């Protein structure tokens, strides 16, 4: 139900501005689901729901089907936006679980140096969220990115990326967004300081 609420809210937000694109992001992380991406399952759900009465969004809804974790959800979606439109977004809105706000809004946004004023996070949590979920998010999911902002070194992050690509697809990015090649390939502990389409070099 919560995932359906995320999809519904994304469609609603896209319907508010005809100049936006709606991107469903997520790779093919589970063998049991077969080679169907998370992104495609979200798109298919929205389509099955008739786009929640907002059918005009359908022509502006796309998928990003390679992301294996939350950082890639954000960065690869920006790349995919460029692949589709030929430009980079001036604003980004992320719809996800509310307990992931720190991870997306601070850690990942800061890692790619996307302007805070142009970034919005919309969080929807499942009802009756257990405290253990919040604790796990802080200690197991978000915290490793505090020390390893690009998920290149910390064992748990690397293991998760490998596990979430059971069909062993190659990552095609930065094809479609050549200006982001340096940060996509950046695999150092320290933050990337080069120029980005939305930020000058430091």
Radius of gyration: 16 Å
> How would you describe the shape?
globular
Tell me the strand percentage band: 5-15%
Number of helices: 7
Describe the secondary-structure layout.
Elements: H1 2-15, E1 22-25, H2 38-48, E2 61-64, H3 70-85, E3 92-96, H4 101-111, E4 119-123, H5 131-147, H6 155-163, H7 181-184
Parallel strand pairs: 1-2, 3-4
Helix pairs in contact: 1-2, 3-4, 4-5
Properties at a glance:
41% helix; 7 helices; 202 residues; two-stranded parallel sheet
Task: Please give a structural write-up.
The protein has 202 residues and is mostly helical. The protein has 7 helices and 4 strands; from the N terminus they run αβαβαβαβααα. It has helices spanning 2-15, 38-48, 70-85, 101-111, 131-147, 155-163, 181-184, and strands at 22-25, 61-64, 92-96, 119-123. Strands 1-2 form a two-stranded parallel sheet. The chain has a two-stranded parallel sheet with strand order 3-4. β3 (92-96), α4 (101-111) and β4 (119-123) form a beta-alpha-beta unit. α3 packs across α4 and α4 (101-111) runs parallel beside α5 (131-147). The longest helix has 17 residues, at 131-147.
